[in-house]
UniProtKB/TrEMBL annotation:
Pfam families: RVT_1 (PF00078), zf-RVT (PF13966). It comes from Rubroshorea leprosula. Residues 201-457 form the Reverse transcriptase domain. Signal peptide: none annotated. PANTHER family: REVERSE TRANSCRIPTASE DOMAIN-CONTAINING PROTEIN-RELATED. CDD domains: RT_nLTR_like. This is Reverse transcriptase domain-containing protein. It comes from the Eukaryota. InterPro entries: DNA/RNA_pol_sf, RT_dom, RVT-Znf.
Amino acid sequence: MTKDFLRVWSKSNIQEVDRKIKQAREEINRVDSNGETSNLSNEDIIAKSSHYTELLKNMQLKEEMAQQKARKTWLKSGDANTSFFHKCIRGRWRRNEINVISVEGKELREVEDIKQGVMKYFAELFIDEGWQRPTLEGLSFKTISEEDRRMLIQPFTEEEVKAAVWNCESTKAPGPDGFTFGFIKIEWEVIKADIRDFLMDFHTNGRIVRGSNASFLVLIPKRENPQGIEEYRPISLIGCMYKILAKVLANRLSRVLNTIIGENQSAFIEGRQLVDSVVVANEAIDDVRKRKSRCFVFKIDFEKAYDKVSWSFLDYMMEKMGFDKVWREWIAECLRSNTVSVLLNGSATKEFSMSRGLRQGDPLSPFLFLMVAEALNGLTSATVAKGYLRGVKIGKGELEISHLQFADDTIFMGEATEDNIWMIKCIMRAFELVSGLKVIHELDKIRRNFLWGGVGGGGDKGLWSRVLLEKYGGKGGNWISWMKEGRGIGSPWWKDICKLNTGLGNKDGWLLPNFNLKLGDGTSVKFWLDVWVGEDSLANVFPRLFLLDINKNCSIYDRGQWSDGGWCWRLQWRRPIRAWEEENLQQLIGTINHIKPVRNVKDTWRWRPDNEGKYTTRSAYEQLAKKEESTLMEYKKIWSAQVPSKVSACPWQMLLDRIPTKVNLAKRGTMDNNQAQMAQGLKNYEERLEYGMVHNSMVIVVV
């Protein structure tokens, strides 16, 4: 009821501000008009000054409201920036708007489907598995002192509550209650009694009033043009009443963490620097290099670390660290009383409850997570103490470093032995079983892609062969050397297929030019990246416009809509199109305007050599046979020509791409580093046969 009343009040208040600005301007204009025909009286001058004051006050108020929506906290003062703020608001809305999203492999486009799919995803993510986890009996952890135990549960004071409020950013996005901390600070004397009663009730009964711990879950993109729900970071927008309570509890907890969290952890702890772990890791690696010894460095990251924390394990760790039962019950109430609704494009889904996980945006979450991560420190330290894991010894061998932590990021270091690697795998598996946190397997894919594809997907099979040679003593297979051979050795058919598979296929080969697209509904064809109109992708034809699109990975379906039975293109830009870009835009519109998707029909690729558009082995063979026959005819013409053999050798080398151009010499490794780098830089303009033998100005003169 209060929320509905405030919504009506807010709308009318904004309209009232606009009305007052308009009225003040009209009064100022009226007085100025009177001054043009007669002298102004003192009353008119005073009235004009009063209207100016009213105008400036309301314009400043409107600017502050726009600034809050724009989230530009770095801009504190200056001339009126309302236009700037409104542009920021529109830009932020465009970036954060979700029109299509992939949830668990299923692409969702309709508004209601997106809301239901995203809500279901997070509702299931925050549900505990419900099975009994093993414990860490036998491991000892640091415990807090009796004095700290009493300090944590003592009554709240007005001074610490006010300090917590003033420590919060005034213009941060509000939670479901709609209040910012700027409002709380301004009206502190009016509402502090209500806040005091809320905190006293929590201290006495250990309960949070229903609705006070509600939150909005907003999705913040982790990268440009996100596609799947995994590419968004869930941030919670929490109401002011609970956030004040959480801030007070977090401030108290931060004062004792230094005594219970190991020195390997450098995040969120008073007296420790954020870069401590990085500095120590660099020093350790430098020391190993100076001694010319070997070690391993292994960085791990947890999959949805905050979202998968087991509440029962968190309570278990607090009990092991000596926290009072009252404090543990307070934390449990803060966790189980929360309700969540996902905020999508300004519209909230239905509420759901959590049974595991820590909300990102809750002031308590970073400190609670440190106590969970301390279990990993305890496990690792115990294995080092028993001699099962051997770390890196630096200096005179008196200091041994086995692991360093920064919140949910951990670096393992140690002697480069297989036993050490197996022990780390055992530690991580044990930690997963007790806490619910597991390592991101996406990193395994990155390693695999790097070993098979080299840096930047360059196809460095030699790197993989070195790994095989080191591990198994093998050579990596004869196909590695075959892949490195030139164009004239081995089957050109299979090489063309391999190029396509590694992203190197192009229109100069035999495969891609024999396919063409039959456009259907446009859902599976990339608007910018696929070749669906003309002979090249729109990204290559219109690179400037491609950079301006808000979603460079969009489909054709995303860039239009059906209206009144017809298709209308709907291009979306990060900013308005400039005058010098208009010509490019008109060319793009002219290119695509005659093409219309077809409703309820899937996009299909057609095989050109077959009349029905279906790929068959026979048609592919015939196509390749024609191409190879043509190549053989060229060879015969060269060697049957009535010229000396040394003259025929030149065009023969050209066909095989064996002319010693700088690019080819760099590939063969016959150039020094500087020359090779220069040749590599020529790749975009490559000193190719086409240039050297055809487009060269001297050749033109001779011809």
